[in-house]
């Protein structure tokens, strides 16, 4: 492993050598925050103050003459083919709808109730974008086979900077018993799909919370898919060697299914590791997505150096475990920062059976303040042989 602190541009067409070592608010929706700077104490900085974008939250008396929507997420230059398993769920015949056509009807209580009931959930909050600040975390019940949350491109769920937004944990008895039976980690249900949504200011920094991250979404067991969604200004624990995921933390997926992230944007996330995504032993497929301005702010890496609390790796993505895969296709990762290793990606397969594939993607201006793998700007990689990098551009 060689510490790299220079700008390096590499055009990759083949494999590279790797070194082994609430209520709806009436205020404007927040603009995407600027990249946060790591705190000297290892704690995440306060979320940036909201600034008004072009589309704002609907007033109490919205005009029906015009339908607005949130900014389109994802990487517009991405051309990855979307497999059937990663496509949006059909919401033409919803099981339940949050709201009765007005912003005031789209409340935290209505969201929490709908998520607990499961099924296909849509929103009817009026023709303009609305933000719903949750007063408690929405939790998926274990006896639900599937849940689809579709905001129609106009709904933002906010944690208000105080709490996690969505929670799914098949091993949590407080959420009931799974109908599938058997070991909780192996259960393929519930299947949670979030699409055409925005998630902002989720907070998983509670020191008594042992789930290890996921300011917007925490998932353990079951299955998760994210489509056409935006994650801004989420956060989790500021220190710790093997936790993370300011936006999403996944502990395990039932039946070894991958997490698909399609056409989605992650920005302004802050956590000890994984400023956007984090997992243990979980495969991810990231298609036509965009990661920018996220930060891993921990101190001491993993395992933690003597005298440090640990963390600081994976400015955008942090993965650990044994046999798993990370695939990027049509994805842009830029301007993320890691206080330790892997300004864009931290990928460690402990038994060297995991695989990293970067295809038709761009990684640029991602800062690894401590270390990264020689020849892979912004990436720290430990796996079998070389990662597969084709048609992609990686630069410091």
Automatic annotation (TrEMBL):
Region entry Disordered, spans: 17-101
Region forming the signal peptide: 1-20
Sequence ranges of Pro residues compositional bias: 30-53
Predominant location category: other
Subcellular localization: Cell envelope; Cell outer membrane; Secreted
Keywords: Cell outer membrane, Membrane, Secreted, Signal
Chain ranges passing through the membrane: none
Superkingdom of the source species: Bacteria
Biased composition (Low complexity): 54-71
Pfam families for the chain: Chlam_PMP (PF02415)
Full protein name: Right handed beta helix domain-containing protein
Protein source organism: Actinoplanes sandaracinus
């Amino acid at each position: 492993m060689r510490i790299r602190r220079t700008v390096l541009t590499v055009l990759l067409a083949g494999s590279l050598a790797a070194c082994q070592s609430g209520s709806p608010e009436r205020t404007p929706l927040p603009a995407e925050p600027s990249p946060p700077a790591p705190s000297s104490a290892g704690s995440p900085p306060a979320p940036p103050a909201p600034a008004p974008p072009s589309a704002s939250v609907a007033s109490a008396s919205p005009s029906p003459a015009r339908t607005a929507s949130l900014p389109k997420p994802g990487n517009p230059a991405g051309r990855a083919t979307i497999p059937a398993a990663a496509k949006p769920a059909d919401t033409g015949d919803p099981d339940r709808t949050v709201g009765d056509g007005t912003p005031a009807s789209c409340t935290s209580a209505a969201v929490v109730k709908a998520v607990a009931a499961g099924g296909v959930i849509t929103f009817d909050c009026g023709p303009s974008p609305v933000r719903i600040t949750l007063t408690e975390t929405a939790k998926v019940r274990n006896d639900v086979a599937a849940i689809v949350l579709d905001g129609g491109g106009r709904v933002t769920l906010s944690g208000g900077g105080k709490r996690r937004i969505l929670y799914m944990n098949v091993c949590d008895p407080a959420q009931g018993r799974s109908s599938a039976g058997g070991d909780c980690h192996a259960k393929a249900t519930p299947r949670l799909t979030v699409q055409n949504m925005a998630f902002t200011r989720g907070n998983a920094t509670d020191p008594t919370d042992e789930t290890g991250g996921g300011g917007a979404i925490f998932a353990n067991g079951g299955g998760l898919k994210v489509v056409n969604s935006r994650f801004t200004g989420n956060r989790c624990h500021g220190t710790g060697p093997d936790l993370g995921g300011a936006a999403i933390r996944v502990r395990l997926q039932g039946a070894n299914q991958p997490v698909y992230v399609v056409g989605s944007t992650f920005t302004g996330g802050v956590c000890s590791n994984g400023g956007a995504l984090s997992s243990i032993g979980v495969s991810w497929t990231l298609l036509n997505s965009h990661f920018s301005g996220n930060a891993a702010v921990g101190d001491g890496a993993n395992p933690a150096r003597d005298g440090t609390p640990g963390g600081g790796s994976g400015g955008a993505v942090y993965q650990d475990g044994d046999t798993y895969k990370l695939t990027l296709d049509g994805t842009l990762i830029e301007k993320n920062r890691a206080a330790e290793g892997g300004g864009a990606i931290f990928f460690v397969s402990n038994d060297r059976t995991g695989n990293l594939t970067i295809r038709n993607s761009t990684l640029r201006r991602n800062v690894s303040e401590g270390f990264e793998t020689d020849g892979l700007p912004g990436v720290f990689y430990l796996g079998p042989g070389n990662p597969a990098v084709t048609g992609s551009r990686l630069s410091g």
